[in-house]
Automatic annotation (TrEMBL), chain A:
<dbReference type="InterPro" id="IPR036890">
    <property type="entry name" value="HATPase_C_sf"/>
</dbReference>
<feature type="domain" description="Histidine kinase">
    <location>
        <begin position="210"/>
        <end position="426"/>
    </location>
</feature>
<keyword id="KW-0472">Membrane</keyword>
<dbReference type="InterPro" id="IPR004358">
    <property type="entry name" value="Sig_transdc_His_kin-like_C"/>
</dbReference>
<dbReference type="InterPro" id="IPR005467">
    <property type="entry name" value="His_kinase_dom"/>
</dbReference>
<keyword id="KW-0812">Transmembrane</keyword>
<comment type="function">
    <text>Photoreceptor which exists in two forms that are reversibly interconvertible by light: the R form that absorbs maximally in the red region of the spectrum and the FR form that absorbs maximally in the far-red region.</text>
</comment>
<feature type="transmembrane region" description="Helical">
    <location>
        <begin position="167"/>
        <end position="189"/>
    </location>
</feature>
<dbReference type="Pfam" id="PF00512">
    <property type="entry name" value="HisKA"/>
</dbReference>
From TrEMBL, chain B:
<keyword id="KW-0804">Transcription</keyword>
<dbReference type="GO" id="GO:0000976">
    <property type="term" value="F:transcription cis-regulatory region binding"/>
</dbReference>
<keyword id="KW-0597">Phosphoprotein</keyword>
<dbReference type="InterPro" id="IPR001789">
    <property type="entry name" value="Sig_transdc_resp-reg_receiver"/>
</dbReference>
<feature type="modified residue" description="4-aspartylphosphate">
    <location>
        <position position="51"/>
    </location>
</feature>
<dbReference type="InterPro" id="IPR049767">
    <property type="entry name" value="RppA"/>
</dbReference>
<keyword id="KW-0238">DNA-binding</keyword>
<dbReference type="GO" id="GO:0000156">
    <property type="term" value="F:phosphorelay response regulator activity"/>
</dbReference>
<dbReference type="InterPro" id="IPR001867">
    <property type="entry name" value="OmpR/PhoB-type_DNA-bd"/>
</dbReference>
Length: 426, 230
């Protein structure tokens, strides 16, 4: 049970810390990408400005034109070997291609004034061609406030990509290592967190074991002494006999009370998964009905049951669930006068198995309804003492149903009867 | 049956011992695990009833050691430890039955009878020699139409004699078999008990069946009456 909780804690810790780490690493990568792009863009822009600065705009054959003769790349000068520029293009103000260097372009400029990332196939001279990413800048060039054309240039992003890839690899490795460390830390912290819970659980177990022993030892002595008194041969004193029988009855009832209290103390919280089994509720209730028939006959009660013929399988501790339903049925029988009706139903409603125990008994006053699942709560002391019980049966039933992840509810009308309903997840 | 009852709480030991004795068993009551361990080595028992939590050695360890020594008599754990795990541990340690305190004495007696039936010495609910029958659960002697009820002590003597038919049993043997561990029977206790049993058996006409073998002891012999009244 504790190892399962510890594993759960470690899982959730790793998952939450892992998510934070991944988001953090993603943000870092995004920032780095932006920065790298910024560096390329500013470089590209600077080069474009230099080239644009060399463009002359003057009268040529009676018309004002852009003269590109002395412009690097586009002019007559050969490009420097370390220029890194894949291509440079000059479009006139209408977007028509006038001159270019490098990769042959489209005749018409399709976009104006922006940075663009382009995927392209690049022939590196030999027969092999490779896909590379380019950063392209289209720069409108003006002369004295008038647009004279567009300069389009591109440079490869290979170096930035390589740097980004290296950074990504580093991030992935770091995140993986951090995740491994986090899960180990989660397991360790889970163990630490479990310590006080385990201590208190063990303390509770010790307490209930001691309480069980200390309470039952004197009770055992009372019971056996009284019964040996009953066994004594030749003792025909009826009054003495009656008193001994009373002592035996009280001792047995005390034993039931101690058993119920220890049950409530021991089974706090959820059930251990190893105690849960796949059980068919129809079978469980049929077994219960068989054991109940004699009691209802003895009390002159009509007992009806309406169970679905099909299997209704839930994951539960069969003994505990049996006890919960049994408590409700016994309760219904207790508070239903002779010739009354007790009904047990089983059906499926909204993906939940529903067990209903309805009686035509004396009912519960509305003011008491919210309290009837409280421990030791008794609706009417007088009424309770006439049928026996300590007011723990319903509390036990509720604790069992809650431990199975279900819900126990009640509807009742004074004088007309009550209906208890157990809902269990399928 | 000869039963060893180990229980550290005298308030529980005493009534259980009384109830078992009244049911016709010979009961050695011990309050301590270490003493119980020693007693088990000294004597053979038909049944052991062990409390779990005992001083010195726990009932669980006693049960384990008893089984490891190769002894086969049934063991009944009688304890306040009531969780399923406790019951599994107790039964796995070698116990044949497990009862949670407080126990209904009538249930305990029934369990003891049930465990007795599993003993290799079990000869049925009734012991018989010639036409004399001894009903073990009711302590009643029956012969023909006549019946007589015996006290626990008388029953124990007759049971012992009937389990060893035609065998001469010395006073020492009878004392050892019938009196509890550590008790000192008076010198004429066996004689008195035999006399009482003979008186009871008179009702069914079998008083002479218990033969006195002078200087040695007693034996049960249906032929003895024929010798006296040929």
């Amino acid at each position: 049970m504790f190892n399962r909780s510890r594993r759960n804690l470690a899982h959730w810790f790793t998952l939450s810390m892992g998510s934070i780490l991944v988001i953090f690493a993603g943000t870092l990568y995004y920032q780095e990408t932006l920065q790298q792009l910024g560096v390329i863009d500013s470089l590209l822009y600077k080069k474009a400005r230099i080239i644009a600065g060399n463009i002359q705009y003057k009268l040529y054959q009676g018309k004002k034109r852009a003269i590109l003769k002395n412009v690097p790349l586009l002019g007559n000068n050969p490009p420097s070997p370390d220029s890194e520029i894949i291509y440079a293009r000059w479009y006139d103000a209408e977007g028509k291609l006038k001159r270019f260097f490098g990769v042959p372009p489209q005749e018409q400029l399709s976009k104006t004034a922006e940075f663009q990332t382009i995927k392209t196939t690049y022939n590196s001279g030999s027969s092999t061609s490779k896909v590379i990413w380019l950063r392209q800048l289209t720069l409108p060039v003006q002369h004295q406030g008038k647009l004279i054309g567009y300069l389009q240039m591109a440079m490869p992003m290979t170096r930035a990509q390589e740097s980004l890839n290296r950074f990504l690899l580093l991030l992935i490795l770091t995140v993986l290592m951090a995740l491994a460390a986090t899960s180990l830390m989660g397991w360790f912290l889970g163990g630490l967190a479990m310590l006080p819970i385990r201590d208190s659980y063990e303390q509770l177990q010790r307490f209930t074991a001691n309480a069980s022993h200390e309470l039952r030892a004197p009770l055992a002595a009372i019971l056996s002494n009284a019964q040996v008194g009953l066994l004594a041969p030749g003792d025909q004193d009826a009054a003495k006999h009656l008193r001994l029988e009373k002592i035996v009855a009280v001792a047995k009832s005390m034993n039931t009370l101690i058993g119920n209290l220890l049950f409530l103390a021991r089974r706090v919280g959820c059930l251990a998964p190893e105690s849960l089994k796949q059980i068919d509720l129809s079978d469980l209730l049929k077994e219960l009905i068989e054991s109940q028939t004699t009691q209802t006959v003895a009390q002159h009660l009509n007992f009806n049951c309406d169970l679905l013929p099909q299997e209704i399988v839930v994951k539960a501790d069969p003994e505990l669930l049996y006890q919960a339903v049994m408590n409700l049925v016994s309760n219904a029988c207790k508070y239903t006068p002779a010739d009354g009706l007790v009904e047990l139903r089983l059906f499926i409603d909204c993906h939940r198995a529903v067990i209903q125990v309805e009686d035509s008994g004396i009912g519960i006053p509305a003011a008491d309804l919210p309290h009837i699942f409280e421990r030791f709560y008794q609706v009417d002391k007088q009424r309770q003492s006439s049928v026996g019980g300590f007011g723990l049966g319903l509390a036990i039933a509720q604790q069992i149903v809650l431990a199975h992840g279900g819900n126990l509810s009640v509807k009742s009308k004074l004088g007309q009867g009550s209906m208890f309903q157990i809902e269990l997840p399928l | 049956m000869r039963i060893l009852l180990v229980e550290d709480d005298v308030a529980q030991l005493e009534p259980l011992q009384t109830a078992l004795s009244q049911a016709g068993h010979i009961v050695d009551g011990v309050e301590d695990g270490a003493i119980a361990k020693w007693v088990i080595c000294q004597r053979d028992y038909d049944l052991l009833i062990l409390d779990w939590m005992l001083p010195e050695i726990s009932g669980l360890d006693l049960c384990r050691q008893y089984r490891q020594a190769g002894k086969t008599a049934p063991v009944l754990m009688l304890t306040a430890k009531d969780t399923t795990l406790d019951k599994v541990t107790g039964l796995d340690a070698g116990a044949d039955d497990y009862l949670v305190k407080p126990t209904d004495v009538f249930e305990l007696l029934a369990r003891v009878r049930a465990l007795g039936r599993r003993s290799p010495l079990w000869q049925g609910e009734t012991l018989q020699i010639a036409d004399l029958q001894l009903h073990l659960s009711t302590l009643i002697v029956e012969r023909g139409q006549a019946t007589v009820e015996l006290s626990a002590r008388e029953f124990q003597l007759l049971e012992y004699l009937m389990r060893h038919p035609h065998q001469v049993l010395s006073r020492d043997q009878i004392e050892q078999a019938l009196w509890e561990w550590g008790s000192e029977p008076e010198s004429n206790a066996t004689t008195t008990l035999v006399r009482r049993l003979r008186q009871r058996l008179q009702v069914v006409g079998a008083a002479d069946w218990i033969e006195t073998v002078y200087g040695i002891g007693y034996r049960i012999n249906p032929e003895a009456s024929k010798k006296l009244h040929p």
